[in-house]
Amino acid sequence: MSRRYLTIWFRHLTTDQLAIRKPELKGEPFVLAAAERGRMVVKACSAAATKRGIETGMALADARAILPDLDVLDNHPLRAGKLLRALAEWSLRYTPVAAVDLPDGLILDVSGCTHLWGGEDLYLREILTKLRSAGYEVSAAIADTIGAAWAISRFGQISAVVEPGDHMDALRSLPPAALRLEAPVLERLQKLGLYQVRSFINMPARVLRRRFGQDLLTRLDQALGRTTERIEPIQAIVPYQERLPALEPIRTATGIEIALRKLLDQICQRLFREGKGMRKAVFKGYRIDGKIQQIEIGTNQPVRNIEHLFKLFALKIATIAPGLGIELFVLEAPVTEDLSIQQESLWAAGNQENSVIAGLLDRLAGRFGAGAIHRYLPDQHHWPERSICEAKSLEERPAINWPEDQPRPVCLLPRPEPIQVTSPIPDYPPMLFIYKGKVHKIRKADGPERIEREWWIEQGLIRDYYRVEDEQGARYWVFRSGQYKDDQPEWFIHGFFA
C-alpha cells in the first residue's frame, strides 16, 4: 500500500490561539513581538494585521508606521511548539501517526485511515471543519509525499487532494519556495529566472547540484518520492490498533459496549491471523469536546478470547464519561505475545482449569488493580527472605518443589518487624509478645527451628524460629536473632499462618 500524507498549515497559529482565548482580540489587528539584535521585531501577525500589510519579520517600528494603533503583545518562543503538540495529540483521533512541523504545521500519515470517513475528500473536510470552527485559519493537502502535500497546502491553487501518482504534475506550477528551500538557494533561482518548479524539475541532477547545492536535489527528491522522508510521531506507534468512528456521537453505555465488541472482534481476528494474543489492551473514546476517555486491562497470559476480554473491560465501562458524546473509538493492544491455536483451545468450555484460574485472576486484577495479585515460586535459597521469588506469568514453573519438611507461613513479611517478648528461660518460646502495641499471650508453641545465614552471601547472626499461637487462635512465625549468650538478643515477627 502506497503512503498518503496530510499536511496542515496554520496561517496564524499563535495569534489565532490568543483570539480564541481572548474573544476581544477576534478580528482586531495585533502582533506578537520580541527583541532581536537590539530592536523589536514582529514574530506573528493576526489575520487582520496581515490584511493591513504587516508581515512577520518586520521591524515593529515599521509596523506601527503602517498602523499606529496596532496592538502589540509579547511573543513567547515556546508557545508555537506547545500548541502544535496539543493539536497533534488532538489529531490522533484521525490517525495513529501525527508529527509536529515547526513553526506552524502538522504532518499526518493518513494511510489506511481515510476510508473510515468515506474517502479522502470527506476526511479532509472533517478535519478542516473542526479546526476552522475552533477558530483557526488553516489550509491542508493530501498527497503521496510529505514534500508535495506541504507545498500544495501552502502554495497550491488546485484541489487539496492530489490523486495518487499526480504529485509531480501538481508541483510544476508552484514557486521554488514550495520545496522548503533556504533563502540563498531561492535567491539564485530568482536571479536565473527560474520562477516555477517546472523550470528546473527535469534538469540533470549534476547541473542542479553544481549550481544550487545538494539541498535543492534533496528537497526535490523528497517531494517527488525518490527519497523517503521520515517523520517523528509524537506517540509511539502501536502495531495492533483498530478504529471505529461513530455516525452520531455516542452517549450511552449500550452504544459504548457495541463499539467495544466490534473493535474486539476486529483486533482479535487480526491477532488470530498473526498467531498473537494480547497481554494489555487500551480502549479510548474521543469526545466531541476534544477530551479523551480511556480504560485499560491486563491479562496473566496472552488472550484473544472476545468474551473474556469484554468481561474485563465491562468492569470499567462505567468509569467512561461520554459527556456530549464520543465520536471515535480506538482499541489498542500495546503488549502482545505469541499464542498458538493449541493455547487458544484452553479457553474452550470444559477444558483445562488453567484457563479458569487465568480468567479469575484477570477479573480480580481488573477490579482491584494488577498490583493486588502476586504469585510466588520457591527459590533455591535457605534464608527465608530469599527462599521465594515472584512469578512473571501464570505459565512460569518453579525450578524446585516447595519444601514440605518444615511448615512456612502463608504471609511472609518482606522484612522482619521487631517485637517485645517475655521468655521464661533460654531456648524457650516466649510467654507473650507485644506487636504494634497489642499484647499477644501465647497458648501453644513449637520450635525452635534454627536457620543460619548463607555465609557465601552475607555474614550475620543465626535465627531461632518458633511457631506460636495466641489465645485468639491466630498463629505467627517469630524468631530470636542470635543466642542468649549474645548481649540482649532481639526478637522479631516474620510471618502469619492461615
From TrEMBL:
SUPFAM superfamilies: DNA/RNA polymerases. Belongs to the DNA polymerase type-Y family. It comes from the Bacteria. It comes from Pedobacter steynii. GO terms for molecular function: transferase activity. This is Nucleotidyltransferase. Pfam families: IMS (PF00817). PROSITE patterns: UMUC. Keywords: DNA damage, Transferase. InterPro entries: DNA/RNA_pol_sf, Rev_trsase/Diguanyl_cyclase, SulA_CellDiv_inhibitor, UmuC. One of its GO terms (biological process) is DNA repair. Residues 21-72 form the UmuC domain.
